Amino acid sequence: PAFSLFIFTIARDPLRIIILIAGAFFWLVSLLLSSLIWFIAVKASDPQDEQLQRGLLIFGVMFSVLLQEAFRFLYYKLLRKAIEGLVALSEDGCSPISIQQMAYVAGVGFGLMSGAFSMINLLADALGPGTVGIHGDSQLYFLTSAFMTMVLIFLHTFWGILFFHGCEHRRWWEIVAVVIMHLTVSGLSFCNPLYVGSLVPSYLLMVAAAAWAYLLSGGSAQNLRRFLLCKC
């Protein structure tokens, strides 16, 4: 999905490519910091205490989500300054890219890097040792992981639109809604290996976030109908 979004909506515009790469870098830095905190916490605790280690894992996931959203906010502030600079340098006093377009591209950047790391971890598990499901566990691990990666890529894209819109119009409840959805989707991963318990709610949230982002971007039911019917 990220590759398709990049090819059809971003690849032809050098400015969008720069914003995409910068967004991916911001997500990567947030992951690095959260991983460092979690690593220190694990090393400083008792590795034999399974309940404590699970608690640290939950803490690490929740902290990582909050840190990602904090970096999303920092990236919004950076792009807002960039727009002011572009307007000052342009001859007609207009920015070559709108804040809505920046929000979309930044969201794709977050999703692209998130999906890349998810696939790296998945491929690392695929190298072995062992065979998935050999002890009676579900054999759908790789398939469900791929679907979960896809939903996270799309969600980051929609969250970027919602988050930037909330910052731009000072509608802080939209920002809070993004954080809550992100925490919910990440928390649902603890339902595994009950994959239905994590995939179905995540896709329902993705549909809701997509509809919300579409409406905030100026879309309407009439426009959607004309698009589906291939009418100009």
Automatic annotation (TrEMBL):
A GO cellular-component term linked to this record? gamma-secretase complex
Predominant localisation class: membrane
InterPro entries from the UniProt entry: Aph-1
Q: How does it sit in the membrane?
A: Multi-pass membrane protein
Could you tell me the Gene Ontology terms of the biological process aspect for this record?
Answer: Notch signaling pathway; protein processing
Instruction: Please list every transmembrane segment annotated in the UniProt record, as residue ranges.
Output: 17-40, 52-71, 102-120, 140-163, 175-196, 202-221
Q: Is this entry keyworded Nucleotidyltransferase? A: no
Q: Which keywords accompany this UniProt record? A: Membrane, Notch signaling pathway, Transmembrane, Transmembrane helix
> Where does this one sit in the cell?
Membrane
Q: How does it assemble?
A: Component of the gamma-secretase complex.
What family does the database annotate? Answer: Belongs to the APH-1 family.
According to its UniProt entry, the function of this protein is described as: Potential subunit of the gamma-secretase complex, an endoprotease complex that catalyzes the intramembrane cleavage of integral proteins such as Notch receptors.
Mind telling me what this protein is named? Gamma-secretase subunit APH-1
